[in-house]
Amino acid sequence: MLSDRRPILLANARIVDPSRDLDFPGDLLIADGVIREAKRGIGAAGVPEGTEVVDCRGKIVAPGLIDMRAFVGEPGAEHRETMASASQAAAAGGVTTIICQPDTSPTIDDPTIVDFVLRRARDTAIVHVQTMAALTKGLKGEEMSELGLLKAAGAVAFTDGLKSVTNAQVMRRALTYARDFDALIVHHTEDPDLVGEGVMNAGEFATRLGLSGVPSAAETIMLERDLRLVSLTESRYHAASVTCLGSLEVLRRAKDAGLAVTASASINHLALNEIDVGPYRTFFKLSPPLRSEDDRRTLTAALDEGLIDVVMSDHNPQDVEVKRLPFAEAAAGAIGIETMLPAGLRLVHNGELKLLTLLKAMSTRPAELLGLAGGTLRPGAPADVVVIDPDVPWLVDPEQLKSKCRNTPFDEARMQGRATRTIVAGRTVYESL
Amino acid sequence: MNIAHKSSFVLSQRHLLGIAGLSHADIVGLLDLAGEFVELNRQIEKKTASLRGRTLINMFFEASTRTQASFELAGKRLGADVMNMSVSSSSIRKGETLIDTAITLNAMHPDIIVMRHHASGSVELLSQKVDCSVINAGDGQHEHPTQALLDALTIRRRKGSIEGLTVAICGDILHSRVARSNIILLNTLGARVRVVAPSTLLPQGIERFGVEVTRDMREGLSGADIVMMLRLQRERMNGSFVPSVQEYFHYFGLDQKKLSYAKPDALVMHPGPMNRGVEIDSIVADGAQSLIREQVEMGVAVRMAVLEALSRNLPNA
């Protein structure tokens, strides 16, 4: 911890509160771990004695980011990432809450493991950590897990991580049962048979590289099936990672029909496309795969208009042993928790997204969907806040990233803008030099 | 007596990873040089000394008879020391990664490594980790550049030039590195390329490679100067990509009737090994229009040319 819980005044900032669609010049006062007020001209005179006054001229003050999908590795794969290292990376990226995924070892499919994860996070992490629990026991897609008890233990949503529940009957029952607990089901939508041996987006580029392709229909078909089941069960459903045009059409239809359906897009799919794979660069091997530029543009536009609700990092640390292999044999996944905000700011600078939209999708919306108290600068809310310098130029040096793994697709990328201070529950947990 | 080489062609790169990285001049330079080696290979004294002192490692992670033998012979005829490593005896079976194997071999100071591997891009990966030149002898479904070069040399010697010829490539385009390399090379040299296959064996986006695509042998072969057949792997024959061998042969197997759709002087090629009665009929394979044996002969000359052209780039060359 860099500092104690002295009151903090973030002065002369551009205050952006997506929970109230506010964007104005002003000051934000934090005391006792909560936001006291955010308004124009609080000034150094109007604050309690001992307040740390931070001049935020030229900077943005926004709710701390909530990363709705991060694969942490603890328990079971601590060599890849621990709660501690993930939380360090999060803090450096302006993320104040991480949502873990249940595909750990052991799987988070039992209330005692939820309890373990939350205690472990409390003891070692410098940001908030919440966890999703397994939708089916052992992520096998056969029997639903104890949704009620897991939720009571603290699980914020239910998912089988990177696996899709292929059995429609199992999915239907889980959705039906989840409704009784108002539980949110988050589903990775990829039909494993259609994915087959595919390792990158199907199309000309895969053919040129001689790699087997994953058709975007693999995603859309599974999503479409799910949405039919949701209309049957009227439960809350969240598509874990939407990447392509076809899926967006299906999603739009469901939303227009008034279903309680929401969706995430990963920062990778918003910022990168299949051509980035280039000469077999395994850091760009993702699941679902990076799509075409047309898909990427459509996805960004869908975020801009609110069809996509959440932007997440899809943080997935993989070490060199599983990445330094021929492309088809390498593990999928990229780290991203620390670069999510800068990569998002790129889209803002390019004119593809409004800042308010980006920040809403990275804070307010996930808080609403998961029932968390953050994602807002409302007085009385927890003081989870990020100070952003939107313009500072910097180069991504993988050696400087806080994650235990180096598999970033933004290796040596030129960025403009980043978090300069991250505050969790009123304490400054990160400050850039 | 050795023939004095007239060509002093040097490849403008350290590795040969694919046809995709070669210019028109690179391809013509290699073919010209290979043409000279054809003559040398027909003499009693076939050896030269241009690779004397050099070490060539043949690293084959996939079974191969003709390509491996061809590279071995090419290396030996140029005077190099040749070592063959095949998967059955290698430590990859013991769980060693490709990169560790590469680092181990690199420590032995080879000058050229020839590699075949089942994963696309693996040869490129290897080339990033070693100090020597690397030649792609086939990587997954990506490229097989020396096969395309030897096919081009074979065609050029029979037809004089490749420009303006119509070449039909038929069969399992989807899984074929030979098809990809040939399409790129033949297009670069100005041929008109057609691919003929059932839709299940056509890769997505193939029409963007500058080829005409058809599912019908009659249409695909009509007016063709060259008919290039591809091997169909046994595991893909029964229901997964095509319903049966019988049905495949009926529609796509090259017999005399289908060959008659092509020009009367059309020539038949196959990279081998052939599945007689699956993609090609024995009468056609062994007939007067077949170039299949000549392809093998050209293979040695082309690989000598590639080794020679790359070795001129090596340090102290």
Biggest sheet record of chain B:
5 strands, parallel
Helix count of chain B?
Answer: 11
CATH architecture of the largest domain in chain A: Alpha-Beta Barrel
CATH superfamily of the largest domain in chain A: Metal-dependent hydrolases
Determine the N-to-C terminus distance of chain A: 15 Å
Given as residue ranges, the uncertain stretches of chain A (5+ residues, pLDDT < 50) are none
The number of helical elements of chain A comes to 13
| Protein chain pair with the most extensive contact, residues per chain | A-B, 22 and 24 residues
Shape of chain A: globular
State the helicity of chain A in percent bands: 25-40%
Reported by name, the CATH topology of the largest domain in chain A is TIM Barrel
Unreliable residue stretches of chain B: none
Q: Main β-sheet of chain A: number of strands, strand sense, barrel status?
A: 8 strands, mixed
Q: What is the rounded distance between the termini of chain B?
A: 23 Å
Structural class of chain A: alpha/beta
| Oligomer status | heterodimer
Question: For the CA atoms, what is the radius of gyration of chain A?
Answer: 21 Å
Q: For the largest beta sheet of chain B, what order do the strands appear in spatially?
A: 7-6-5-8-9
